[in-house]
Automatic annotation (TrEMBL):
Residues 108-382 form the AB hydrolase-1 domain. It comes from Rhypophila decipiens. This is Alpha/Beta hydrolase protein. Residues 1-22 form the signal peptide. InterPro entries: AB_hydrolase_1, AB_hydrolase_fold. Keywords: Hydrolase, Signal. It comes from the Eukaryota. One of its GO terms (molecular function) is hydrolase activity.
Amino acid sequence: MMMLNLSAALGLLAFIPITVNASPAITNNCIELLVPVPVKATNIEYDIPRVHDTISAVNWAVNVTTWSNKNYAARIIRNVTISQTFNIHAKLCVPSVATSKSSTIQLLTAGNGFDKRYWDVEVNPSKYNYIDAAISKGYSVLAYDKLGCGKSDKPDGYTMVQVPSEVEILASLTRIVRSGKLLSASEILSNIKSTELLKKFNVRPKKVLQIGHSYGSVLIQALLAKYGDELADGAILTGFLVSSQATANNVAHFDHDYAAESDSSRFGRYGPGYIVLVKATLQKLFFRGTSAGFEKKLLDYTEKIKQPETVGVYGSEGTLSFSPAAGYSGPVMTMAGEFDYPLCNGDCKGAYEANYTMGLFPAGTNNFTFHLVPETGHALTLAKSAAETAQKMLDYLEDNGL
């Protein structure tokens, strides 16, 4: 039995688009925030090649995947204690009309290589925009840029932006949301002049749902394993499954450029250790092997919104033990595309390790479900099946009283 290989899944784009039948009276009220998020985590300094241009980016990928070179454990130099506050950019959306679900917040975590726009698709939003879909069902939504991408802080790409610190950012952000002090703790970037409208955003949630894709789903699983019911009332992990074929691919299969060298106008402010996927790899990673399952304009959109990744995240994948979330008892849905290339080497139908996956959520087995999306690759929100996928997610929440 093979465990999920994070290297195969990192960067995996996906979100969950939609067309939902709902009252047209429910629309979005959205506000942009800069949230100071305090973080305490133990990261690791690794013996890995430095990345400062595209040639060294390729050398790094080859070095860390060559079978005879050092493994994860042998590359550890020392622990690095992280204790500081990072500025995390977020978008909070609430229904224009109060609903029974307004006090339930969906907290959205995108995959590696993308920011919150992964959930907020601008192309044909009635089909692909998950935030719009969730709002149309009456939920409140908070989507954020992970550390090192979008409009969030971009610290050292080797020792600062790693799996442990990203798990703790999600944990700390969730606590701020649960406290009802998100607005008061944040700098409000949007120009909101109406006091009545501002009041709508001041939500103290009764429930918080953790929704992720790919690497974002991996972070949520680690969060549930560490903190259990404290930080989630429900979870949907998309682009996530334990597969017998997960180790067939690694980071060397997916081409990266040095971010600042790749596109100086977009990524010139990113320093050493930041890499970015090339367009051909975006197609390989996020879409199925033929163009039948996606529209070309969505691939172009993916190239437009892609974000740098860090070698620190890839290097720290060994910190993930995929321990069972014994302290979490809520509902869990996991989803993957039938033809997911990075997770299943192109065919998930015979590769899904159901018992192992369910074992990651032992207390919630009675409320666990897995859905394999037909005719779809890794990018669930950018596939032609996006609307049906989103509806499946929202139906699952509804069926579980969330």
